[in-house]
Amino acid sequence: MNSNYEEEFVIKGPKGGYVLEPKGMGYAFFQNMSRNSNLVAQVDGVSGVKDTYGNLLERCISTALRMRQIGIKPKDVITMCSLNHLNSCVPVIAALFVGAVPACLDPLLSLIDIVHLLKQVTPKLVFVDQKSIELIENALGQAEVETNIVMFGESEKYMEFREFVTENQNGDFLPYEIGDNRETAFIMFSSGTTGKPKGICLSHRGLLGQGNNLIGLLFETTLIYASYYWISSVSILFAAVQSGSCRVIVPPFVPRTFWKLVDRFSVTCIFLAPTQTIAILKNGRPKDTNTAHLHGILIGGGSLSAQNLKELRELFPGTYSSITFGQTECSGLSLDFNRSDPKEVALMLTKPGSSGLLCPDFSCKIVDPDSGKVLGPNQKGEICFKGDCVMNGYYNLDSSEAWYADGWMRSGDIGYYDEDRCFYVVDRIKEMLKFNSYHIAPSFIENTLMTHSKIRMAVVIGIPSDEHGDLPLGVVCLKDGSEDVTEEDIVKYVEERIDDRYRLRGGVKFVNTFPLTVSGKIRKNYLKQLVLSEQI
């Protein structure tokens, strides 16, 4: 194919416009935390206790010194399994201070998933809260991994975290300096929505760059519910440290306490999953809640209908609310609207289905997944990325299938861009259905279902058919008081609005809730298993 033709359809994002610390993340964090020692780094969303960067830095240095004493070396893997609290970021930053590689777990994961991940990374040290210790003990036993455990809290059996924060020899401490900014700084894990999670190796260059890209979004105070198992929370931690801004530290999401947190701490930026967004919409806004300080709401990790986004914007007048697109493999956000640019703000407000324009330092092209042809505007294909923020590869696994032969990383997502270079993410390739040889995007049917006035949430899966391939089936959660809606009603509703090939030939199933990952994404594979095994 003509290279000039292909180059015409390669979209390039703007330059980042920042200078990265060549000595790596540990050094950059040490410098920034020292510089911002009097600023508030984090606040406990339950108790209201504030933690300055100076106090946080002291604990991180002490923990780093203790890590060195017990033999933690550069490139060793350390992990943590804990709900969020004021000390949960300390092992992460301390590991970067000594050149170790964090690979965090989430206590809401299943035992099977924890075993799988521990086998992958075989950590030298595990930090655990008291609620997660039984899970970690069982997982380590099944994984046959020997490691040292550190407890957040009291323990007669293991080292206690307080032993790590009693060192006061901070005056001469120097953090680890990298030799190459492409070195792996952090191992994150894929979300597991379509298969077993894989360890994703992210570089100092990529994570520092993404942290700088996010700085313009955070402003003073950011609220996010995800643990450090998720790239969203890690990116915000890094951006906050680099900018000296504050994070509200909270336990898992509860709709009834959300508004109190936003009001009490004058939150300026919020990151939400689509399921959390819908829960907020469902519960409504309490009277006399002040959100004048709230500048932006970013929704990531899945799709949200244009109607739900419209309702969210009505619920938060004066707040820029949008659907972003990011991947762990890209160290965070790759598509978003620049809220400092009036032209992009106008596009954001007039194109509710778009995830935005290409983020700084990324290049992108759309490729036909069958032919490999590079596509132009308004043509759907696989979204592919290049850039310094793209992952190094999968940890201890073959990564060749993650890239095309020409070096472009495959996102695994189907999407397109329009004449304004605004991108739209349509579906996951692995979730695409094939009916009578036609590719069917479940999200297209889902978006139609979500326009039904009595449907709260909807997911479309494929029922295997020897004759036709996949028969689309809708799994639907109705709004309260809508129990009179029948399967026939919904099937007819879809038939009247979209082409014949998208009909719900597999039928409709009704549920009260959906199985979710710990970050709030719907577990489509598991949901499909439940339907096929007639448990739904």
Would you give an account of this structure?
The protein is of the alpha/beta class and 536 residues long. It has a domain of 101 residues: ANL, C-terminal domain (GMP Synthetase, Chain A, domain 3, 2-Layer Sandwich), CATH 3.30.300. The chain contains 15 helices and 29 strands. It has a seven-stranded mixed beta sheet with strand order 3-2-12-11-13-14-15, sandwiched between helices. Strands 1, 19, 20, 21, 23 and 24 form a six-stranded antiparallel beta sheet that branches. The protein has a five-stranded parallel beta sheet with strand order 5-4-6-7-8, with helices on one face. Strand 13, helix 10 and strand 14 form a beta-alpha-beta unit. It is globular, with a radius of gyration of 23 Å. The model has no long low-confidence stretch (mean pLDDT 91).
